[in-house]
Specification:
This protein has 414 residues and is an alpha/beta fold. It folds into two domains: 4-32 and 280-407, Beta Barrel (Lyase, Ornithine Decarboxylase, Chain A, domain 1); 34-278, Alanine racemase (TIM Barrel), CATH 3.20.20. The protein is built from eleven helices and 21 strands. The strands form three sheets. Strands 4, 14, 15, 16, 17, 18, 19, 20 and 21 form a nine-stranded mixed β-sheet that branches. An eight-stranded parallel β-barrel has the order 5-6-7-8-9-11-12-13, surrounded by four helices. A three-stranded antiparallel β-sheet has the order 1-2-3. Helix 2 (34-47) runs parallel beside helix 9 (252-263), helix 5 packs across helix 6 and helix 8 (208-226) runs parallel beside helix 9 (252-263). It binds pyridoxal-5'-phosphate and lysine (LYS). Residues 58, 61, 79, 102, 164, 199, 202, 237-240, 273-277 line the site of pyridoxal-5'-phosphate.
């Protein structure tokens, strides 16, 4: 069930009126639905309920502390890519022993932090990183649980910028080097081999690339077993897509059932790292029309939200639905919805048929993932506020940035 629906011709966020929220908290504004976040997480967890598993929500999709806390309370694990994300998980009440640490460039300080907190597993992405992690662990008198991220060289069929499982991408260890690096990991005193990991890309709408990757990874796991290297878990990564427009990605139950079937009775624990599938449709981005302008063939709606708040349309030419918070009767016009940033590429959507007036609120749907987390202060614009609705209640979970925060920490020369 969608928790952002019209009621009496007004957009609601759960049981709250979006227009009222926009007036109370100001725009641009991110609004998340707690019920949707919980529903999406449970959909994943239920899909593998009969198999040993851990759902590690990918923090990069939406790292607001309240969002992480909602998921931590459900018992979620977390997939992190930095010390910053790890500290957010801890602040939000997440368990370090359910954290997997992905990323190609972990620093020594981040390794130390994660070892001292006792995370579930490091997803190691290169031979060089493996050696570094071993040194750090030995120095601290610890043994690091490791999984090697192997690049299965499959085409995820997604946008090139968010495809990660091809040989030409920077991620993971090449399949033909994997066995030797596993053997090396197995011989190092500071490491304990736990798993195998892959992640082939984001916003996948077909199941086949996941299955192709899985076949290659399972064949590797079987070869490792022959060498006496026993793998406890298989981390399948994230990447399950969502509906932005008319895509029909598999639902988590269909996706998980297909993976479980491929597993063929192997007693491997499965780790999932979904980000977008949990957070994207749990959020909207609300912006207000500042000015309408146009000429005989082009109409622009200048809104107070911009590419610094929501960069997906500019960066990936991503299409996200833009809907009026209070739809008007009457004729529509073809608008480009553009922000105040001084870039031609600053748009939230192009060619949208809408009936607009100055002061109207618009909602950009599916903005709960890779929205706020990718925002910036470009043009010295303060970051938007974030709120979470929970039934008829709304909670401010991050205040709009104040102008003075934009230069905090910067110093004049003496
Ligand atoms: C290693 C890893 N895990 C999980 C994710 C989450 O991906 P998604 O939000 O597509 O589920 C990503 C991002 O693509 C990633 O790089
Ligand atoms: N930020 C991307 C997804 C990247 C996933 C991170 N590995 C998006 O908005 O679609």
């Amino acid at each position: 069930m969608d928790h952002f629906l019209y009621k009496n011709n007004e957009l609601q966020a759960e049981d709250c009126q979006v227009a009222q929220l926009a007036q109370t908290y100001g725009t641009p504004l991110y609004i998340y639905s707690r019920a949707t976040l919980e529903r999406h997480w449970h959909a994943f967890d239920r899909a593998v309920a009969n198999h040993p598993h851990l759902i590690c929500y990918a923090v990069k999709a939406n790292s607001n502390i309240a969002v992480l806390n909602v998921l931590a309370r459900l018992g979620s694990g977390f997939d992190i890519v930095s010390g910053g994300e790890l500290s957010r998980v801890i602040e939000a009440g997440g368990s370090p022993d359910k954290v997997v640490f992905s990323g190609v460039g972990k620093t020594v300080a981040e390794m130390e932090m994660a070892l001292n907190l006792g995370i579930h597993c490091f997803n190691v992405e290169s031979a060089a990183e493996l050696e570094q992690l071993n040194l750090v662990a030995v120095r601290l008198g610890k043994v690091a649980p490791v999984s090697l991220r192997v690049n299965p060289d499959v085409d995820a069929g997604t946008h090139p910028y968010i495809s990660t499982g091809l040989k030409e991408n920077k991620f993971g260890i090449a399949m033909d080097e994997a066995e030797a690096i596993f053997a090396r990991a197995n011989s190092l005193p500071g490491l304990k081999v736990k798993g195998v990991d892959c992640h082939i890309g984001s916003q996948l709408t077909e199941i086949q690339p996941f299955l192709d990757a899985m076949d290659r990874m399972l064949a590797l796991i079987d070869r490792l077993a022959e060498q006496g290297i026993n793998i406890e878990h298989f981390d399948v990564g994230g990447g399950l897509g969502v509906t932005y427009d008319d895509e029909t990605p598999p639902q988590p139950d269909v996706y998980a059932a297909a993976l479980l079937e491929r597993l063929g009775g192997r007693a491997l624990k499965l780790i999932f790292e979904p980000g977008r599938a949990i957070a994207a449709n749990a959020g909207i981005f609300v912006t207000q029309v500042l000015y309408l302008k146009g000429n005989s063939d082009k109409h622009f709606a200048l809104v107070d939200g911009a590419m610094n708040d929501l960069i997906r349309p500019s960066l990936y030419s991503a299409w996200q639905n833009i809907i009026p918070v209070k739809p008007r009767e009457g004729d529509t016009r073809n608008y480009d919805i553009v922000g105040p940033v001084c870039e031609t590429g600053d748009f939230l959507g192009k060619n949208r048929e809408l009936n607009l007036d100055t002061g109207d609120f618009l909602a950009v749907r599916s903005s709960g993932a890779y929205g706020f987390t990718m925002s910036s202060n470009y043009n010295s614009r303060p970051r938007a506020a974030e709120i979470m609705v929970d039934g008829s209640r709304a909670h401010l979970i991050r205040e709009r940035e104040k102008l003075s925060q934009l230069w905090q920490g910067e110093q004049l020369l003496p």
